[in-house]
Structure formats: C-alpha cells, structure tokens
Design a protein that fits this description.
Layout lengths: L18 H37 L5 E9 L7 E5 L2 E6 L2 E5 L5 E6 L5 E5 L4 E5 L4 E6 L2 E7 L4 E6 L5 E5 L6 E5 L5 E6 L2 H4 L1 E7 L5 E10 L2 E10 L2 H4 L5 E8 L5 E5 L3 E5 L3 E6 L5 E7 L4 E6 L3 E7 L6 E7 L4 E7 L5 E5 L2 E6 L2 E6 L4 E6 L6 E4 L5 E6 L2 E8 L1
Antiparallel strand pairs: 1-32, 2-3, 3-4, 4-5, 6-7, 7-8, 8-9, 10-11, 11-12, 12-13, 14-15, 15-16, 16-17, 18-19, 19-20, 20-21, 22-23, 23-24, 24-25, 26-27, 27-28, 28-29, 30-31, 31-32
Amino acid sequence: MSQKKKTQFKILTPPEDLSEIKHKVRKFRVIKIKRILVPLVLIFLAVCGTYLLLDNQTYTRARTASEYPGGRTDSSSYAQFADGIVRYNRDGVVFLNRKNEEQWIQSAQLQDPIISVKDKVFAVADNGGNTILVFTEKGLKGEIETTLPIEKIAVSGQGIVTAILRNESSPKIISYDAVGNILVEQQVTMSTMGYPVAIEMSDDGNILAAGYLYMDAASVRSRVIYYNFGETGQEKQDNIVSSDDYDDTVMAEIFFMGDDRSVVVGDDRFVIYRGNDIPEKEKEIELGQEIRSVFHSDRYIGFILLNQEKSGYELCLYNRLGDQVIRREISGTYSNVKIDGDEVIMYDGSRCCIITAAGIKKFEGDISAEVLEIFKAPGINRYYVMSVDGLRVIYLTK
C-alpha cells in the first residue's frame, strides 16, 4: 500500500478582516518612506543652515581664488553684460568672457564714450559726438550717425535707441532703430516744455519716459512725460499719454523696473509709476535728505543719502512697491554703488563694502585691487573683480 507524500505547504484560511493587513502594509510603507526622507531632510537643513551661516556673517578679508591677467588699459571703463563683461574706451568696444578672454572687438573713435545696458542689448555712444553703436552678445548689431551732438542715450531690449541731441535753441529727442533709421522725432520747445535732462525706454520700446527741467518765476520745476509709440499713443497728441509737474525738485533720473513699473528720481524724492500703456503715478516718497547716488534692479530701488543729523551717509533700500526694506548708516564714502541680486556693493579704489538686503554688513575691507567693476560669481561669497591688471575671482574670509 503506497503512502501519501507529505508536503510543506499549508492551506491557509483567509482572515476574517482584511483591514488589519492593509493597515500593516500602509504602516510598513510609511516607515520605509520616513527612513528615506528623514536623512534627506536633515541633509537639506544642514546645507541650508551652513549657507545661511556663511551668507550672514561679516567678513574682513578677501582672497584670490583664480586670476585671469589682461592687458593694462587704465583709461577703460567696464560694464557687466549678459554672461560677460564689456570693456569700452576711446578706441572702441570689447566683449570679454568670464576668463577675461576677448570674444570680439569693435574698433571706433569715441572721445567720451557713454553706455546704456539692457539684458540682451547695449549701446555705446560718443558723448558730444555723433556716433552710437548698438551691440548684442554676438557683436555689432548696428551703427547710428546723428546730425547733432549726443547728450544722453537710452536703449530698449529690442535695440531701439533714443537720444537727446544737444541744441541750445531747440534740442531734439530722436528714436532710431539699430541701423540708424529714424522712428520718432520730438522737437523740444524749451519755452513750453523745458530742457530734457533724462530719458529711458521700456524693454519693448513702446514707452519713452522723459524728464524736463524748466523755470517758473523764481522756482525750479520738473515735468515728467510718458510717450507711447504703440496703438494707444497713436490716438494722443505727440504720443503723450501721461504728464506730471513737480515743484522745487530736479527729476534727473528715470528707470524701468520690469514691464509695468518705472521710477523717476528727484534730488529729494522718488515717484513710482505703474502701467504698460498709460503709466500713472502710484506712489510718491519724499526722502527728506539729499540724495548722493541712486542704484536699482528689477526688485530694488536704492539710495545713498547724506545724513543731516550725524556726519556720514545712510543706505536706504526700497522694494518695487515703494516699501522700505532697510535703512542703516554706512561709514566712509564710495564713488561707485550697485545692486547685484540681494546685495548692495559699494566700492572706491580698493575699498569695498557689501551689505545684504536684510541689512547685514557682509564685508568691509580692502581687496588689494583698484576695482573697475565687481559682481557676484557662482558659489558662496565669491565675486568677479575687474581691475587694470585683469580679472580675478575672490572669496571672502574672516
């Protein structure tokens, strides 16, 4: 009689309640996810904490991380543009990459070069001369010859250039395309409008803002006019869509902040305008102190003010809505001031001071180079410094 083979398999009866099994499965998955996420979160917090610790400290020394020598050009000026640096002087314009290597050279005769920079286009003009050169990152886009001496220029993101042309009896404001064709010509009547002292263009080239100065009896007055060269402005006389007068102040600087805001700066106040087609006054802020210098980005409006109560100066920073972000005293004077990201960078010769938008003094000291241009480099506390000896990458230390 044959015997039945025993197997190792058992017949299991299904549990009466499947919810308990589902609960255990979910619990197992949660534990597994936690085992993965907790270390990642801890690493992320550690990295963020380290970054904040390094970024919010005060440093007093700068060391060189790398150096890219270049030819000595004491008479050159520099401007940050796109992914490189523009060097311009009386002999022309050169575009350098971030290793101080020449990408292209444009020769020109410019007795007193001035520059206007947008994100993707910049223009260099001969102040008092008749030449305007328009560039992109790839090189020369066009050349403009004017009939009257150039006093100021502004460029749009499309390469349209507007210039104030000097004429004692009746100055002109003319807009050109990049190859020199006249798009719009404004004949300024000084007896009714005043003398133009400031111009700026919107990025799309549709809006031109101009500041005029005139005398009314014994007082100085300013007039700010917005011209619209698009469809909205075609319906208006002389394309004027907005005009405001200001008493006892010189509105001598205008700039745009993004697509919908622009700022007009006087000697003791600033005014924020809002609107794409018809800019309207949104906020006027009187500073109550003398403005020594102005700087800006798409996010911030900054001023160095003369401190009348104490000897010295104050740094004031506002956001694009006109709300004050920081106000703090600064020691010493600096001939150059700019904002790069969330940092205000002041420099004069080899002296440099960096203050964050949170009001923290990040650096104050000597960087052992006569600074011609400085801006942030990739990495924590690293900066590009252009001097007559070349380009250096520095990092801040205690």
